[in-house]
Every structure is written in structure tokens, then in C-alpha cells.
């Protein structure tokens, strides 16, 4: 990498990620995927003994669930929805004409039943609530989804499509707070195992607009969100590579999720930004995994 080259340019030049012409949308090389698989295995090794139920989601979710979750109200700037053509021959002809003339053809597109998943755990809550009240000791899920957030950027760490692995705990306030505490400690252990340096800090989500400022403040004042920050793009602005979220009774109330004794369930989740962790490794240890420290290679299997 030359001095003027960005981290992303270096990743392209080394063939680790491959440019698609859209910022934040990249093809992954086999070398990159091997690192992702290694991180996935490390996370599984740490959390695997807890008896979590495994679910893997497609990158799209039920749009009605997406709407009810409030994403379109709170983060309209990040949301992505799937639109499809449901018209007739005249509509088809209009699309062809618009394409040939380089005009906007979106007028022939209608909102579909599917929205792009913005956070891996959003599709989970209604599925869990449908099963009825939680068992006595609550529930624990191990989930993964490709997520979408519309934030095109030249920073490798800000992708529009990326994978989020999560553990999600549902139960009493004590259950879910203990879960989050345990994962903050475990997260620090994972960072150390990977030969990285990170720090946990209080955070907030990028709620939109003026009304969003109040929501941001509430989230911070109530210590609802912590992030594991690791320097990747720069030392001054470290990157959130994990997040530890306490939702209080927000999703429990929204979806009618109850504990065994009929109280509204509380929930918490820990999220691992898979690409961001891989990029942190590539930044700190270099673009060739075969030259990484032996213990790090061993734990990742690369
Ligand atoms: P959160 O829901 O807390 O914003 O995101 C959970 C985790 O997903 C973050 O801690 C981070 O690791 C990852 N993440 C969030 N936004 C992005 C992004 O734009 N690109 C990538 N690659 N990962 C992200
Ligand atoms: Zn979550």
C-alpha cells in the first residue's frame, strides 16, 4: 500500500475484496471468506456451550414486521426495501422505453412484501413471540443474517451489505442484563484472542432527524448500547466491531412476548460485525494471512 492509497484501495489491489462499482458493495475473495469462517468458529467456540437455538435468516425480511419494528420511522436514511414490477404489457413497454432512453423506470415498481434486513435480530422477535410465553429460563438464539444499510462510503468498514452474527437473549430483566455483561467480557476475550486491541464504550444508534436527538440521548443516558471499538480505518475514530444492546421491554411489548409468569419479556442482543472483524485483522496483522502471528492463524484456522 502506498501512503496515499486508502485501506479500501489496498484491499482491492491485493484482491482481498473486489470492487463492484458501488461503494459499500463488494465481492469477497476466498481468502477473505476463510477469515470470516475463522471468526465465526471463534464466536461459536465461545458461545457454543450456552445451548442457543440456531437460526439463519435470508437477507430480506417481512416488510410488515420491518414497518412495525419502526425502522422506517427511526432510520429512513438507512432503510432499503424491495420493489417489484407487478404491471401489465403497457407497464412493461414503459419500462423498456425508459431503459432505452436512460429515463427513471421506478414508476413501474411497486413496494413488495420484502424489506432488506437492517439488523439480524429484527425478524426474530415475532417468530419467538408466536411460540407463546417463554420457558421458565427464557430463550437464547444464535442468529446470522446479511444486513443492508444505505450508507455508501469509501471506508472499507462501512459496507452497505454485511453479515451480522448475533446472540439474542429473551427473559427477565436480570436474565438479559447478566447475558449482556457476560458477553461484554467475552467480547474482550475474543478481541484479545484475535491479537487485536479494542475498548468498550457507550454508544447510540443514528436515529434520524431532530426527534432522533431525543432518542439518541435516552439511549445513552440509560446505558442501552455499548460497542467494542477497534482502530481499523484510523486510531482517532475506531470502528464499532461488536455491539451489546439492552432493549428493555421494547420488543417484548411490541410483539407481545411474555415470560413464563406472564410479565412482558425483556431482550438483549450481542452483535458481531463479521466483515468489520475481518477488516480489523487485515489492518492490524497485514493483508497476507500467511504472515499473521501463529496463535492468531491457529485459532482462526487460516
Ligand atoms: P448495530 O446494529 O449495533 O449498528 O450493528 C451491529 C454490528 O454490525 C456493529 O457493531 C458492526 O460491527 C456491524 N456493522 C454496523 N454497521 C456496519 C457497516 O456499515 N458495515 C459493516 N461491515 N458492519 C457494520
Ligand atoms: Zn440485535
Structural commentary:
By secondary structure, the protein is of the alpha+beta class. The chain folds into 2 domains: 261 residues, BirA Bifunctional Protein, domain 2 (2-Layer Sandwich); 35 residues, no CATH class. It is built from 11 helices and 12 strands. Strands 3-7-8-12-11-10-9 form a 7-stranded mixed β-sheet. Strands 4-6-5 form a 3-stranded antiparallel β-sheet. α2 crosses α10. The longest helix is centred in the middle third of the chain and has 21 residues. It starts with 6 loop residues before the first helix and ends with a helix. The site of guanosine-5'-monophosphate has 17 residues, from β8, β11, β12 and α10. Zinc ion binds next to β12.
Q: How much beta, percentage-wise?
A: 25-35%
Mean pLDDT: 97
Radius of gyration: 21 Å
Give the CA-based shape: globular
> CATH superfamily assignment of the largest domain?
Bira Bifunctional Protein, Domain 2
Amino acid at each position: 500500500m502506498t501512503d496515499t492509497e486508502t485501506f479500501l484501495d489496498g484491499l482491492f489491489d491485493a484482491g482481498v475484496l473486489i470492487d463492484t462499482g458501488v461503494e459499500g458493495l463488494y465481492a469477497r475473495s476466498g481468502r477473505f471468506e476463510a477469515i470470516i469462517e475463522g471468526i465465526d468458529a471463534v464466536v461459536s467456540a465461545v458461545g457454543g456451550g450456552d445451548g442457543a437455538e440456531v437460526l439463519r435468516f435470508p437477507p430480506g425480511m417481512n416488510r410488515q414486521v420491518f414497518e412495525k419494528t419502526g425502522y422506517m420511522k427511526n432510520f429512513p436514511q438507512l432503510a432499503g426495501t424491495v420493489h417489484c414490477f407487478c404491471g401489465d404489457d403497457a407497464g412493461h413497454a414503459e419500462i423498456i422505453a425508459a431503459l432505452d432512453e436512460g429515463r427513471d423506470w421506478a414508476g413501474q415498481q411497486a413496494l413488495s412484501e420484502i424489506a432488506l434486513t437492517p439488523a439480524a435480530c429484527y425478524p426474530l422477535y415475532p417468530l419467538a413471540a408466536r411460540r407463546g410465553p417463554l420457558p421458565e429460563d427464557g430463550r437464547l438464539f444464535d442468529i446470522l443474517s446479511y444486513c443492508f444499510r444505505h450508507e455508501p462510503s469509501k471506508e472499507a468498514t462501512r459496507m452497505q451489505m454485511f453479515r451480522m452474527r448475533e446472540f439474542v437473549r429473551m427473559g427477565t430483566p436480570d436474565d438479559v442484563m447478566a447475558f449482556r455483561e457476560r458477553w461484554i467480557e467475552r467480547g474482550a476475550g475474543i478481541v484479545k484472542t484475535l491479537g487485536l486491541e479494542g475498548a468498550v464504550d457507550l454508544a447510540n444508534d443514528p436515529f434520524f432527524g431532530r426527534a432522533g436527538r431525543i432518542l439518541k440521548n435516552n439511549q445513552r443516558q440509560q446505558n442501552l448500547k455499548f460497542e467494542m471499538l477497534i482502530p481499523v480505518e484510523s486510531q482517532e475514530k475506531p470502528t464499532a466491531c461488536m455491539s451489546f444492546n439492552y432493549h428493555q421491554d421494547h420488543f417484548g411489548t411490541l410483539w407481545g412476548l411474555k415470560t413464563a409468569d406472564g410479565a412482558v419479556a425483556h431482550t438483549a442482543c450481542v452483535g458481531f460485525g463479521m466483515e468489520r472483524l475481518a477488516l480489523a485483522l487485515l489492518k492490524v496483522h497485514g493483508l497476507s494471512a500467511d504472515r499473521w502471528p501463529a496463535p492468531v492463524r491457529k485459532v482462526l484456522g487460516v
